[in-house]
User: What shape does this take?
Amino acid sequence: MKKAYLFIFGLLLFGNAEILAQVNLIQNVSARKTVILDGVWDSQVDVVGVGSLARFGLIQDRKPTKFTYNGDNPRNTELVEQDMDVAEKINVPGDWNTQKEKLFLYEGNLWYRKKFAVIPQVNKRYFLYFGAVNYEATVYLNGIKLGQHKGGFTPFQFEITKELKSGENKLLVNANNTRGEDNIPTKIADWWNYGGITRSVYLVEEPETFIADYFIQLEKGKLSEIKGWVKMSGSQKAQAVNVEIPELGLKQSVQTDTTGYAVINFSSKKIQHWTPQTPKLYDVTISSANDNVKDKIGFRTIETRGTEILLNGKPIFLKGAAIHEEAPFRTGRCYSEGDARTLLTWAKELGSNYIRLAHYPHNEVMTRMADEMGLLVWSEVPIYWNVKFEKPEVYANAENQLLENISRDKNRASIILWSVANETNESEPRLQFLKKLLEKTKSIDPTRLTTAALLPKEGKGEFSLDDPLGEFVDVMGCNEYIGWYTLPAELASSIKWTSKYQKPLIISEFGAEAVAGLHGKPDEIWTEEYQNRIFENQVKMLNSISFLQGTSVWVLMDFRSPLRLLPIKQDFFNRKGIVSEKGIKKMAFYTLKTWYETK
Ligand code: GCU
Assistant: This one.
């Protein structure tokens, strides 16, 4: 048996060539004609990943049949060792770790199955759109492999017009969150590796030729020039497309070319620009012969001038917090409006006009709510710590996640910064890897700023920024933990900050840990007083940095991490939140709020 298994494992490992999901994602999927496939799904844990072995018949949903031996095929057809019909149930969206006690620590394969009935219409096309699956997804429809996707925080889709059946369809997803050196993120990260189908799944119906994608934003540095493009998908690519912004009295009819592409440009002196105080969103309609898409888009410019950051041409100081996609109160991966509104409301209560969505693209609910609530966003791909920068396949994966992130959120006014890395050690392969990503970012989206969270060089009484990557980003991010990981808190205000680059600086992380409700003397670690003492000294230092244009405290809310082992104090939680996961605001929250009121 073992021999047979080894042969089949070979098949498993080197099976058929990878069919990667499409990058040209349907823009604004929630505004399309969809059936949302969320809810209760069948699920099967598959620790060693045998489920995709033909012998198991899981992919074909094979059922036991009467074993009629006719001398040639000895296989016992009554023997079937899987049955999704009676398998355990699991909710989608949602990580599996917080749904089932036994899966809390589980990393590996888990099979999801959803049956859904549909009667496909003629002249219509159908897509399956996944908001996110952590980490690697292999997707089958009615036993046919649609393809794979790597990356746990960005959307992907498959066209299923051919595979879709009239009546009952069986959608099978293998989600595998096994960590790997060559993955993005790589093996070790300071957040919980929540596995599963963590965001909504859509069955999308589109006309044969439809408005697949569009980009509508103000031209870089131009307060009255709206510039962008539309892209059609289908056989009638070259056709007339209308773009309307009724409130501004703007309407333009463009002719797409044979690739389905057309440029849009409007000018208007009447635009009320999007700002955190007045997050104005305009209704925008894009229509073609058989399609019509509505979106809510805000218009603002974002630039740098020397060490300043300019929003709509005026200097702005970014005051905010970094946020992990950890759900308040219930914990686990966020996915709902409620999760997003709670977190962003705490950020607003802190006096924030900006948030860093760390360390990976958060769900679209969050970025659209930032648009609505008026919070500027630092958006990031999880190129974090010890990435294998020398490997081309690692670059391809990183670039793909960057493309998916920008594709999904390019029309969000709130997003001002695309970040390509966090705390990555200097090396030539790293520099070349990240430079390429920065160039790619600019080539796709010249309207926004690029950044990365760098590490300072710690000298005697001086912290300096001279990371070679600093030359290629628009804005330098820098993480520092004076008072917690390094140096006594009281030394902070005597630290002189210098930079090799004439660029704006955002202190993208600073902070310390405390157990909410634990009180004591300011020199008693883990108490709120100890954390607050560090914040009081941080604020003095931050006030003294001349080229500082923003701060995002690490972190808004305590979050789960496999690196935080201290019983009773941490219990797998990073306690650097200024709010606990149960919503308790710590003393440091108020110290920072007071400082933000002065900015
Ligand atoms: C790092 C890192 C974070 C981490 C934080 C911490 O700077 O970027 O992901 O959580 O430090 O140590 O708490």
User: Anything to note?
Assistant: Residues 1-19 have pLDDT under 50 and may be disordered. Helices lie at 2-14, 337-349, 364-373, 392-409, 428-444, 528-543, 587-598.
